Amino acid sequence: MTNQTSLTQDASALDQQFRMTHTFHLSLGASQPAAGELESTLKSSNARVDKWLILRRGGFYEHSITVGGIGEASARALRKALASLNSEIKVHVEHMLHFDSAAAKA
């Protein structure tokens, strides 16, 4: 029983030292959903947008959207929701774990 308690405390300490973000990479044609539709989908997922970069390449727009405040399962659900806006949208998501040095010192 002590080992289980110890493992739970260790996992809790690790959770406090790391934070997870997710970067969604979307490729959209000029006639596909606008940033407003993407933003609406992000808001409904309760994701916090940390960074949003839009590049135009020819007739396509590439969005790179980094969000925080959601877990892996929510990120996968959000990827499906973004892809469902239009069957031609290509969505790739990166799950990233960041070390929070300030939390580690506390």
TrEMBL record:
It comes from the Bacteria. This is Uncharacterized protein. It comes from Duganella rivi.
